[in-house]
Amino acid sequence: MDRLLSFIVLVGLITSIISSVDGAISKTSMTKIRKVNSKGPYLGLVVPNAFEMTPLLQSPSFVADGNIPFLDFSGRRFRIGRLENEKVIIVMTGLSMLNAGLATELLLSLFEVKGVLHFGIAGNANPNFQIGDVVIPHYWAHTGLWNWQRYGDGPGDELSLESSGDYTRNIGYLKFSDYNNGTKHRTSSDNLLNNVWYQPEEIFPKNGIPEVRQHAFWVPVNKNYYAVAEKLKGMKLESCINSTCLPRAPMVVRVERGSSANVFLDNAAYRNFLRSKFNITAVDMESAAVALVCFQQRTPFIVFRALSDLAGGGSSQSNEAGIFAPLAAQNAVSVVLRFISLLFS
C-alpha cells in the first residue's frame, strides 16, 4: 500500500512538472509567432549593430505593426512593420559571424520570410572606391576558416586530414614569411607561423539528405536581387558629416566579391593580400554568415555594405571609422530603402 501511494505521488509530481513546461518556445511566444506569420510572408532585414539600425527605424518609411510591433526571442528583438509599404521583420544580430549566423537562423526558422536584405558598414580593400560608397558584392566568402600548416611543410605537402576530404589546398594560402620585415641586407627568412590555407564551409544537407555535407566558399547573392541592384546606380548619397566632406560624392556600385571573418581588419598588408588574392572589395565581420545561412536555407538574399574605413590602408594618424561610420550607416539605409521600392515597383 505504501509503495502504491508513493508511486501515485511520483506520477502526480511528474505530471505536474510536464504540464508546467511549455518547451523551447513558450505558448505566448508561439501564439504571437503564428499571428505574425498569418500576415506574411515578410522581407527579413538583418543588421549588425544599433547605430546601423537606428537610421532605419527613424526613417519616415518605417511603420511599426499596430498589433505586434516586436517579438523578443532568445536575446533578439524582431521588429515587425512596413518599409516602403512592404511587410518587413528587422533583427539586429550583434557583432561577429556567430551572432550574425544565429540571428539569421532564428529569423528564417521562426518566421515566414521570402528574402533577406543584409546591410551595414564595412572596411574597404579596393583602392578604386572611397569611404561613403555603398558596394553590393556578387559573392561572399568566410575567409577566417583556416588549416594552419606546421612549420617546415610547404605548398606541396598534404594538409592534415586532407586525404579524408576535410580540408583542401584548392583555394589557396597565405605565407607569413612573405610579410617579414627585411633585414639591413634586404633579405628575408622563414617565419615560424608558416602558411595558412583557406577553407570552405560545410553546408548541410546535401540533396536533402541530413548529415551529408557539401562545401561552399564563394556564395552568390540572389540573381534577381542583384539585377535589381543595378538600378541603384547614380543614386545620390550623403557626402558630408559635421562639416567634414568626402573628396567626391559617394556612389552605389555592384562589385565582384566581399569577405567576412571574426577580425576587425585595420592592417594594410592583409588588406592588400585579400584584394590581390581574392579580388575582394568589402571586408566585415557578419555578411558571409548571413550568406551561408541563407544558402543553406535556400532563401534569396543580398548584402549592402557602406564603406566606412580603409581597412588599414589610410594614414596611420587617421581613424576613418570613428569619423565616417554614421555617414556610412545612413548611406547603407538609404540604399536599402531605395532597393525595396525598386524590388516591388
TrEMBL record:
<dbReference type="Pfam" id="PF01048">
    <property type="entry name" value="PNP_UDP_1"/>
</dbReference>
<feature type="domain" description="Nucleoside phosphorylase">
    <location>
        <begin position="43"/>
        <end position="340"/>
    </location>
</feature>
<dbReference type="GO" id="GO:0003824">
    <property type="term" value="F:catalytic activity"/>
</dbReference>
<dbReference type="InterPro" id="IPR035994">
    <property type="entry name" value="Nucleoside_phosphorylase_sf"/>
</dbReference>
<dbReference type="GO" id="GO:0009116">
    <property type="term" value="P:nucleoside metabolic process"/>
</dbReference>
<keyword id="KW-0732">Signal</keyword>
<dbReference type="InterPro" id="IPR000845">
    <property type="entry name" value="Nucleoside_phosphorylase_d"/>
</dbReference>
<protein>
    <recommendedName>
        <fullName>Nucleoside phosphorylase domain-containing protein</fullName>
    </recommendedName>
</protein>
<feature type="signal peptide">
    <location>
        <begin position="1"/>
        <end position="23"/>
    </location>
</feature>
